Amino acid sequence: MKDKKINILKLILYTVYIFSIIFFLFKGQYGKSGLSALCLIILFVLSKLYSKNFPIIDKSLFIFGNLFILSSFLLGSCYNVYDKIKIYDDFLHFWSGFITVKIGWNILNTIKIEDTSRKILILIILLFFGLGLSAVTEIFEYLLDVFFSKHTQPGGLKDTMQDMIDALVGCLMMIGYFSTKI
């Protein structure tokens, strides 16, 4: 019963993704239908990991990770929210800084670092982990633009650097929060 809210979230997301797959198939937008299907697959995988108590996927990461996938892939790319709200991309990259540091924090918690005198090292690892995942995201966006003629980086280098700065600010804020937990 403790996961009733999680089950409601999953039901809503499954419904939204399945509806979107069908909607885009009927409109002949197969790429968007495929991206909606990818969201569905990610939800399924994260649900399985969460239900198996995979140590990295805790409740907050499950919720915010799935909401991020919904916001970026489905709403942003499929329903064109990136085009409708100017700062939407900046907001998502900022949010990704929080999520990536949370992933790093959960990984570090699974290896049980007992020596709190290494606090600065832990915080540096979290920063590098968060920025590393942000860089991977930018590489992914670049590859989408080159190989699939998407327009994920309309501002070129300026867009990439702004996205990295957004992620850095999100990372630093989350690291500030976790520095009180060590």
- Range of strand content: under 5%
- Major sheet summary line: none
SSE string, helices as H and strands as E: HHHHHHH
Number of domain modules: 2
Q: Between the first and last Cα atoms, what is the distance in angstroms? A: 31 Å
How many whole angstroms does the radius of gyration measure?
18 Å
Mean pLDDT: 89
Number of helices: 7
Shape: globular
How much helix is in the residues?
over 70%
Low-confidence stretches: none
| Secondary structural class | mainly alpha
How many strand units?
Answer: 0
Notable features of this structure?
2 domains; globular; mainly alpha; 182 residues
Q: How would you explain this protein's 3D organization?
A:
With 182 residues, the chain is mainly α. It folds into two domains: 83 residues, no CATH class; 97 residues, no CATH class. The chain has seven helices and no strands. Helix 2 runs antiparallel to helix 3, helix 5 packs across helix 6 and helix 6 runs antiparallel to helix 7. The protein is globular and about 60 Å long.
List the helices and strands and how they pair.
Blueprint: H1 4-26, H2 30-51, H3 59-78, H4 81-84, H5 88-110, H6 119-148, H7 157-179
Helix pairs in contact: 1-2, 1-3, 2-3, 3-5, 5-6, 5-7, 6-7
Give a quick rundown of the structure.
This protein is mostly helical. The chain has helices spanning 4-26, 30-51, 59-78, 81-84, 88-110, 119-148, 157-179. The protein is built from 7 helices and no strands.
